[in-house]
Amino acid sequence: QVQLVESGGGSVQTGGSLRLSCAPSIYSCMGWFRQNPGKEREGVAFIVQNGSTQYAASVKGRFTISKDNAKNILYLQMNSLQPEDTAMYYCAAQLFCRGAYGIWGQGTQVTVSS
């Protein structure tokens, strides 16, 4: 298994944007998750082999997941950020597109201030 590495987190004001990156995106099925201390991890966005994407209702229309297959980078473009988007964001991969997401990065912090 190859370790995933996220980057691009930071602090922004409400309404701002950030783009998270995750490398290497060598897996066919990948996703972004987020978690705050003491809370359950939440699936945010997912992309599968044929390029289809799926989003949590809370981020639909604001976040976009994409893969650059030439660079092997997974992105999460986050627009119109809100304070409730504050969390540690993790990218993860699903081996053979089956079962649990078993490959994780170390996370990157996103903080949105009002």
Describe it for me?
This protein is globular. Strands 2, 4, 5, 6, 9, 10 and 11 form a seven-stranded mixed sheet that branches. A four-stranded antiparallel sheet has the order 1-3-8-7, with no helix packed on it. By secondary structure, the chain is mainly beta. The mean pLDDT is 96. 0% of the residues lie in helices and 50% in strands.
Tell me the fraction of residues in β-strands, as a range.
over 45%
Structural class: mainly beta
What is the terminal separation in angstroms?
Answer: 39 Å
**H-E order:** EEEEEEEEEEE
Which consecutive residue ranges, at least 5 long each, have pLDDT under 50? none
Sequence-ordered SSE layout with sheet pairings:
Layout: E1 5-7, E2 10-13, E3 18-23, E4 29-35, E5 42-47, E6 53-55, E7 63-68, E8 73-78, E9 87-94, E10 103-104, E11 108-113
Main attributes?
114 residues; mainly beta; 11 strands; 0% helix; 50% strand
